[in-house]
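Researcher: Checking consistency across runs. Here is Chorismate lyase again:
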Amino acid sequence: MKRLALVLAAMAGPAAAAAPAWPDTPLARVEALALLQTLNADLLSHPSATLTLERWCQAHGLADPPIVHARRDRGAARALPDDLRQALGTAPDTPVRYRRVRLACGDHVLSEADNWYLPGRLTDAMNRELDTRDTPFGKVVAALRFSRRTLSARLLWSPLPAGWEIRGLPPAAPGPLPLPHALLQHRALLLDGQGRPFSVVVETYTDQVLAFPAPGARQDAD
């Protein structure tokens, strides 16, 4: 039985070792919140979420090489919500394409993105690549020298309960820190170099952005 467990652990490979559970301690909760706020600020200050995630992946050793790949859901279909159509500034009859991808670094899916874009504001080569390949959207349209206007950014989960600064930090609990799948969500408008909107995205960042040892736990091990 022990031999079988060792074999299964070897088959799991580095991906399993790269995603240890965080302890459910006051320190780990504070660290998780600080890291989520750091990632949030980094995403808000750069136009390309893909490149931001690659920097995050490299900084935290999530994969080698730290390259983000898009895993496209080719069967996905979703109508453009009215509020996002208004942000995009398009008429109801304007052609809009939809793309749903999971942005992964190694074995870690860091983000799930819904993307509506205007093919008429992209080059033919860009549209062909988006239609036929799984390249991340930000890399395909990089030549547009685009900027990003955030429509909303919110934490979907907080490691600390409301009022913790008055009632104190929650006590340590046995077992790992329970992380929900979705941690952070951004809604953003992408504009080309002429200031014309050409895409709206809804990006949901997953628990895999924390798929590395908690800083405090790593220091304890050292």
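Researcher: Does this match what you'd expect to see?
Model: One thing to look at in this run: Residues 1-18 have pLDDT under 50 and may be disordered.
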